Amino acid sequence: MTSPLPPADQALAAEFALGLLDEHEGRRAVEREAANSDFASEVARWRRHFSGFDRTTPMATLPPDLWSRIEARLDTAPAAATRPASAFDEQPSLETSRAAQLREQGRLPITSGEAAADARRRLFDWVWHNLNFWRFGGFAAAAAAIVITMGLGSQLQQARSAPVLVAILQTPDNQTAAIVNAFADGRTELVPLTSFTVPAGKVLEVWTLWDRQIGPRSVGLLQAMSSSRLKLDNLPLGANQLFEITLEPAGGSPIGRPTGPVLAIGRTAQRI
Amino acid sequence: MALDLEKAIMACAGGDKRALNAIYEAEGPRMLGVAMRILKRRSLAEEAVQDAFVLVWRKAASFDPAKGAAATWLYTVLRNRSLTILRDEGRAEPTEMPLGEEIADDGESPEDTIARLSDAEALKHCLQKLEPKRRMAIALTYVHGLSHGELAGKLGLPLGTIKSWLRRSLLTLRECLQ
Questions:
Q1: Does A98 map to a domain?
Q2: So what CATH class is B5-96?
Q3: Which of A23, A209, B22, B75 has the smallest set of CB atoms within 10 Å of its CB?
């Protein structure tokens, strides 16, 4: 791979081909790819090399109705592209089929012709309100749970200080599963309120997410639901931060990101 | 006979739906596998494949065989769509993830994935010359769509240094690939 590009741009082309650039960097790389043939061929070479990984992937069974779902969306899609587009460049009119699905179910307002960004924001808003709904929906249980937590806290010899942040983790069917308490001195604990059946060869893994760009981080592994200290170490912690528990293979997720079903989830709220 | 992917994409640009269906039949199962490695959940992966075919249909005219192989183009469209779904919506839909939904849990480690690369690929031989942690980072990023932050967490490296560490790994890999 000889190239007149400086090493920094060679690495940038590789990051672009891997899919590591954020939205802004990605847009700039798309522009460069269109304008600079050296950069474009560097990107193309990386993609060609990495495409070997695609061929290692096991085939999956296609659901019988997937083609008809695709075909149903083609009639509205003009085949001729109006401008040269890199594969990275999303068509702004491509609404996520997830949003469309929600709309069909009457959970998103019906509007036509909105841009994808708008649809995404609406979806995010919807989920956000939905999470809030959960939290307030389970308020009575949560209030009781906080009292219980403080009781347990004393057993853990942590009664001297009350938590500054509390997250109530709920199961998908709105049962309160656990509380996460964060104290002013940085200690963070998980207090279980529901026990989960953990199959042999599996563990419970606790995650936190404070920035979607950075992604979730593992903060604890449990064989069963039990009171435990979470390893937040130097990770940021603030209000509205997501915590969740997923079921993972023994030893924890092999890829550093949740792979199993979400058993419980909730966001932190500041104690008043 | 194997499908001529390049011809099929060009036929899509001319508005031939049968060509798109032929691509779907030939590549769909592997495309769903690729999307499941990134998105883990079957419903999201199916959505990515569905979106990718709509994008292929719309963007077929922008495919230029002089700039790269048809398969690379096709899988780039799919990976970009999968990564967009992952980063935008991936973990914000707790109520949309029923327990017990089929998830990709092939348990394959990054080392296994690298071992499955064809011996004819320079990529395999060159990755194997890198330190294990460095080749693992590259495989996790491409195959599972990990971000810098997720890589830092997985490899136990500080977030502040992961970018430059990975760039060095990529430049070392590049020297071997030339």
A1: no
A2: mainly alpha
A3: A23
d(CA B44, CA B50): 10
CATH for B110-177?
1.10.10.10
A157 in any annotated domain? no
pLDDT digits (tens, 9 = 90+) for B103-146: 455 567 889 899 999 988 899 999 999 999 999 999 999 999 99
Q: Which residue has the tokens 């219980």?
A: A148
Asked if A172 and B73 come within 8 Å (Cβ–Cβ), the reply is no
- Average pLDDT on A81-98 reads 40
Distance from CA of A82 to the nearest CA of B (A): 9
Which domain, by its residues, includes A12? 7-52
The helix (H) or strand (E) run that includes residue A195 is: none
At A134, the pLDDT band (50, 70, 90 cuts) reads very low
Answer whether B135 touches A (CB < 8 Å): no
Q: What is the pLDDT of residues A176-206, one digit of tens each?
A: 899 999 887 778 899 888 888 888 889 999 9
Spatial neighbors of A183 by CB under 8 A, at least 6 apart, are: A158, A161, A162, A163, A164, A189
Q: Is the pLDDT of residue A125 over 50?
A: no
Tell me if B178 sits within 8 A of A1, measured CB to CB: yes
The 8 Å CB, 24+ separation contacts for A181-187 are A181/A149, A181/A153, A182/A232, A182/A237, A182/A268, A183/A158, A185/A161, A186/A232, A187/A158, A187/A229
Task: Report if residue A128 sits inside a domain.
Answer: no
Residues of each domain in chain B carrying CATH 1.10.1740.10: 5-96
Cβ contacts of B154 on chain A, cutoff 8 Å = 255-257
Q: Is residue A130 part of a domain?
A: no
Total residues belonging to chain A:
272
The number of domains in chain A is 2
Question: Comparing A126 with A56, which gets the higher pLDDT?
Answer: A56
